[in-house]
Each structure stands twice: as structure tokens, then as C-alpha cells.
Design a protein that fits this description.
With 406 residues, the protein is an alpha/beta fold. It has 13 helices and twelve strands. Strand 7, helix 9 (278-291) and strand 8 form a beta-alpha-beta unit. It catalyses: 2 nitric oxide + NADPH + 2 O2 = 2 nitrate + NADP(+) + H(+); 2 nitric oxide + NADH + 2 O2 = 2 nitrate + NAD(+) + H(+).
């Protein structure tokens, strides 16, 4: 238990850490990697280069500090981070190393403003937060290992099939090389892949959403090839998977993880996706039609056009055959053929006026995934429509914990 004075100091100074979150994050990783360079293998180096990871780390520390006397208020952030830590294989012995680098980064950035009282309070707070994370992660490791077919660490999977879904998205059907049981997972969760690429000094770790319903034969991920654009380098791992990994090749993978899963009640559900954000939604859709045959499902997908729209025929067929499934498509830049053959329901972007047109009411559970601008637009529209927070659920393909950070 933290004493009242420590809690007071941490809560008072948390906004200062928020103000300097990017600088603290950058300094933290400089110190951490200089002291323990092998940890490069655990972090997304592309996010490092883009500065996303740095700001997200310090912002997460701020959130925990600001709610140090009521961590239940940031329960969703804690759950998201601990799931990722389990997937990455974070160990209790690494927390002191991280803590030292973090406190030293705060000292370096804040300078004389980081008084002894402030540093001592944050050292205590960090230890308290670390203890909570370690306890939660210990349970996650146990649950993961003890479930039928479960495992800890990497397990070798081979690519059984590689299927092109669109001009930019390809599906990989993965089967365990040892031929043993596959553990179940919840629709919306992800796999974590370790890519050891020729010419790269360190391993690259990536999370990819599972894109099919749980089954006993395979895992499926559907990966978008990230090409270089507007000063952003091409995705190292996505291009490796698309261009260099073939059927029969093996990949080290950790067991499914993630907290973006749907509730099992009977309320109508709306699945909204933008671009490659369709992947967890496809897992949810394919699971719902098997397990909740009478639940009303509305599937809305936004893409540039049919060329990059993955799995469109599958969704279209389900909507035609199943009375409880309705599908809508929104294209921002439709092709001439899209217009001629009416491949979409709306041209432009998903907005509140259109949602009100296609949905009977807002008494539904909403799940959405896609690029950050898409998520912000959808979340803002749903808030304006008075959809309660507990009915608004999203997955962010980013180290950030909430869309409010960006």
C-alpha cells in the first residue's frame, strides 16, 4: 500500500509527465537499449523510428500515476498492456531494469524540477504498479499454459496455405509443426509473430489479429502489405511475409492474446471496420454466425475501393444466406467498375447521418477497428449519438492504449 503523501505527490506531478511524455519516452528507450540492447528483440522497431512507442510508454505511465489511488479507472489500459506483455514474454526480472531507466529518464528530462521527494514518490509508485502487472501477467501465463494445447514462449508453425485476399492483403493459414492440439482463442484476439529476417540485426515482433473463427485445424492471420509512403518506410515484417515467406515455411509464434473480444449477450451487434481493420471483425463475424445464430449482426466495412477490399465475397454471401446478417460497404475512392456494378452502398466515409440511415437505432453493441482517423471518426459519431461508453469497443493497431492519446 502506498502512503497518502506518496499518492498526493504522484497525482500532483502526473500532468507534468504527460506534458513531457514524448521527451521522457525517447530518453527512456535511449537508456534502456544502451543498457540492455537485447531488448530490441522485444519492441516494434518501426514504431520506435516513428516515435509512436515513446509517447505511448510515457502516456501510459501518466495514466497510471494520475489514477494511482484507483487503478480500476484504467482497467482497460492495464488489461491491454498485460495481454501484450504476456504475448511478448515479459518477465518479472525485467521490471526493475525498466524502472531504473524510466526514473533516470524523468530525472534527465525534468532536471532540477525532479526533486528528491518527487523521484522517491514515483519510484514507490512504479514498484506498486509493477507488482500489479506482474501479478496479472503471472495468472495470464498460467492460464495460457494450462489450457488444452497451451504453450508459453514460441512454438513453430508452418504456413499451410497463403491466400491473396486483395491487392494488399494476404491470408496465412498456420498449423503447428509438432502436430499437437491448438488451443482455443476468443474472436478478436491476435497472434504474435517473431520474424528473423536476413540482414536485420534483431528479431522483429508483430501482433496480427486472427481473422477466422476458432477451430481445431489452423490459425489464420490476414496481413496488409505496408508500402512506403509520405516519408513512412515500408513495413519490414509485412513485406517479409508477403514477399519472402512461402507455403511450408515456419514461423515462431506465441499463443493467442488480446482483450478486444465481444460480449456474449443477445443485444444486436454492429461490426465496423476500415481497411485491414476487417481482420478481427471477420473473426467475430465467423464466430457469431456459429455460436449466436439468432443475434442481429450488422457488418459495415470501409475501404478505398474493391481492389483493396478483402473478403468481400465471403461477407456478401453470408449476408445473402443468413437472415440475421446485414452488410454495408463504404468506398472512399471507388473505381469506375465499382460505380458501374454498384459494389458499394455509400461513396465517401462512414458518418453519423449515414449510420442513422442504415441502423434502426443505437441500442446495440458497437465494435470497430481500423486506422486511427477512422477510429476517431466512428467513436466521435457514436458519442454524438449517445451510445454509452460500455457499448463502444475498439481495437487500436498501435502501442497507444486509447485513441485519446493521439
Amino acid at each position: 500500500m502506498l502512503d497518502a503523501k506518496t499518492i498526493e505527490v504522484v497525482k500532483e506531478t502526473a500532468p507534468i509527465l504527460k506534458e513531457h511524455s514524448q521527451e521522457i519516452g525517447e530518453r527512456f528507450y535511449e537508456l534502456l537499449f544502451s543498457r540492455v540492447p537485447e531488448l530490441y528483440n522485444m519492441f516494434n522497431q518501426t514504431n520506435q523510428k516513428r516515435g509512436i512507442q515513446q509517447g505511448a510508454l510515457a502516456y501510459g505511465v501518466y495514466l497510471a500515476g494520475a489514477n494511482i489511488d484507483n487503478l480500476k479507472a484504467v482497467q482497460s489500459m492495464v488489461k491491454r498492456v498485460t495481454e501484450k506483455h504476456r504475448a511478448l514474454g515479459v518477465q518479472p526480472s525485467q521490471y526493475p531494469i525498466v524502472g531504473e531507466a524510466l526514473i533516470d529518464a524523468v530525472k534527465d528530462v525534468l532536471g532540477n524540477a525532479a526533486t528528491n521527494n518527487i523521484i522517491e514518490a514515483w519510484e514507490k509508485a512504479y514498484q506498486a504498479i509493477a507488482d500489479i502487472f506482474i501479478k496479472i501477467e503471472s495468472k495470464l501465463y498460467q492460464q495460457t499454459e494450462q489450457q488444452p494445447g497451451g504453450w508459453i514462449g514460441n512454438r513453430s508453425f508452418y504456413v499451410d496455405k497463403k491466400v491473396k485476399e486483395s491487392e494488399v492483403i494476404t491470408s496465412f493459414y498456420l498449423k503447428p509443426k509438432d502436430g499437437k492440439t491448438l488451443p482455443a482463442y476468443k474472436a478478436g484476439q491476435y497472434l504474435t509473430i517473431q520474424a528473423d529476417i536476413d540482414g536485420e540485426k534483431y528479431s522483429h515482433i508483430r501482433h496480427y489479429s486472427l481473422s477466422d473463427a476458432p477451430n481445431k485445424e489452423y490459425y489464420r492471420i490476414s496481413v496488409k502489405r505496408e508500402d512506403a509512403k509520405e516519408g513512412v518506410p515500408a513495413g519490414i515484417v509485412s513485406n517479409y511475409l508477403h514477399n519472402d515467406v512461402s507455403e511450408g515455411d515456419t514461423l515462431p509464434i506465441t499463443a493467442p492474446a488480446g482483450d478486444f473480444t465481444y460480449s456474449s449477450d443477445k443485444q444486436p451487434i454492429v461490426l465496423l471496420s476500415g481497411g485491414v481493420g476487417i481482420t478481427p471483425m471477420m473473426s467475430m463475424l465467423n464466430t457469431l454466425i456459429k455460436t449466436h445464430a439468432e443475434r442481429e449482426i450488422t457488418f459495415i466495412h470501409a475501404a478505398q475501393n474493391s481492389k483493396v477490399h478483402a473478403m468481400k465475397e465471403h461477407v456478401k454471401k453470408l449476408a445473402e444466406e443468413l437472415p440475421n446478417v446485414t452488410s454495408y460497404v463504404c468506398y472512399s475512392h471507388p473505381t469506375d467498375r465499382d460505380r458501374a456494378e454498384k459494389f458499394y452502398d455509400k461513396e465517401g466515409f462512414v458518418d453519423l447521418d449515414w449510420l442513422k440511415e442504415v441502423l434502426s437505432d443505437n441500442q446495440k453493441d458497437f465494435y470497430y477497428c481500423g486506422p486511427l482517423p477512422f477510429l476517431k471518426a466512428i467513436d466521435s459519431a457514436l458519442q454524438e449519438w449517445d451510445v454509452p461508453k460500455e457499448n463502444r469497443n475498439y481495437e487500436l493497431f498501435s502501442p497507444m492504449s486509447t485513441i485519446e492519446e493521439a
